[in-house]
Design goal:
- The chain is α/β, with parallel strands linked by helices.
- It is about 35% helix and about 25% strand.
- Strands 2, 3, 4, 5, 6, 7, 13 and 14 form an eight-stranded mixed beta sheet that branches. A four-stranded mixed beta sheet has the order 1-12-9-8.
- β10 and β11 form a beta hairpin.
- α2 runs antiparallel to α8 and α3 runs parallel beside α4.
- The longest helix has 20 residues.
- Bound molecules: S-adenosylmethionine.
- The site of S-adenosylmethionine (SAM) has 22 residues, from α2.
């Protein structure tokens, strides 16, 4: 397979992650076409409260968001199947000219762009395949822009990655632009762990899909039956640590990266974190990145927040 700049970047990130302690796979490997479909199934699971809480907030606040932003362009980073975007598309109908879904998962992006173009014929739908940690420069300029980052995808970034991402975004935003973030909040541990470990095994299949994807794309030799699914709450970092645990000591080859990975019995392979937030520290992070938090809206149960922020004027 030909190596492009994008695959080179991902391959190098994968090499570093697999050689780190603990071993890790970048979460981008979760989202091939199959993984994106599994994620959609997760959003419909009863214990995965996040999308429903976010929908509740957007339903109540989208008119206000529209008044405050008067966006001509809605950019959505990590748009996936864009389940909650219709609240924004409906509310912004008076000003919106274009919707730019932006995602690393090409098939999911294509499918959702087609569905939205059919449902909203008055706006131009202009999908961009890209990595929001690398390709923010590819966003269109026509402002005022509202950049939405929903589904608490920001929680999948480590604190240093998150700070770098927000700072890069702050530099991209013009005076008229705004940022809208969906963030999941710290809550009861039982509910958090249940959200990532459903009895039907859909979340497990989603996480294991990262092994299938690396086996296929990097000629790796991960064997599913040599790993257990192992999600847990990390109270020190306030994130869900989502991964797999080796059932026995063994070696995995990742041929395209020239790696031989020795797993000890019980050793973990982290696939994703999902950080949960508190208002004060989250807003401080926005300010440190050069963004001004303007509104913090939560659902009735205080499970989730939608945050509106601007570059400082
Ligand atoms: C947690 S899902 C959220 C999807 C959608 N926003 C929602 O609320 O249902 C994360 C989405 O971000 C995309 N994604 C993950 N890492 C990405 C990256 N580095 N660059 C662009 N998209 C990414 C995935 O393909 C997936 O569609």
């Amino acid at each position: 397979m030909l190596e492009t700049a994008a695959t080179h970047g991902l391959n190098e990130a994968t090499r570093r992650s697999l050689q780190a302690v603990p071993k890790e796979l970048p979460p981008v490997w979760l989202y091939d076409a199959r993984g994106s479909r599994l994620y959609d199934e997760i959003t419909r699971l009863p214990d995965y409260y996040l999308p429903r809480r976010e929908a509740e907030i957007l339903w109540a606040r989208s008119s206000l968001i529209s008044e405050r932003t008067t966006a001509r362009t809605l950019v959505e980073l990590g748009s996936g199947s864009a389940p909650n975007t219709r609240f924004l598309l409906d509310a912004l109908s008076g000003t919106l000219e274009r919707y730019v879904p932006f995602d690393v998962s090409e098939q999911a992006l294509q499918d959702s762009a087609e569905a939205i173009a059919a449902a909203y014929p008055a706006i131009s739908v202009e999908p961009v395949v890209g990595d929001f940690e690398r390709d923010l420069g590819d966003l269109p300029d026509a402002g005022p822009r509202l950049v939405a980052f929903l589904g608490s995808t920001i929680g999948n970034l480590y604190p240093t990655q998150r700070a770098a991402f927000l700072a890069a975004l702050a530099l991209e935003l013009g005076d008229d632009d705004a940022l809208l973030l969906g963030v999941d909040l710290v809550k009861d541990v039982g509910r958090l762990e249940a959200a990532y470990d459903d009895p039907w095994g859909v979340t497990e299949a989603f996480v294991r899909n990262a092994l299938r994807a690396t086996n296929r794309e990097l000629e790796a030799t991960f064997e599913q039956e040599r790993f257990d699914y192992d999600p847990f709450w990390d109270p020190a970092h306030e994130w869900m640590d989502i991964g797999l645990r080796a059932l026995e000591s063994h070696v995995v080859s990742v041929r395209r990266l020239g790696l031989e990975l020795a797993f000890a019995e019980g050793e973990r392979l982290r696939v994703e974190i999902s950080a949960k937030f508190r208002r004060e520290t989250f807003e401080l992070g926005l300010e440190r990145a050069g963004l001004s938090p303007e509104a913090w809206w939560t659902d009735a149960a205080d499970d989730f927040a939608v945050v509106l922020a601007h570059p400082p004027s």
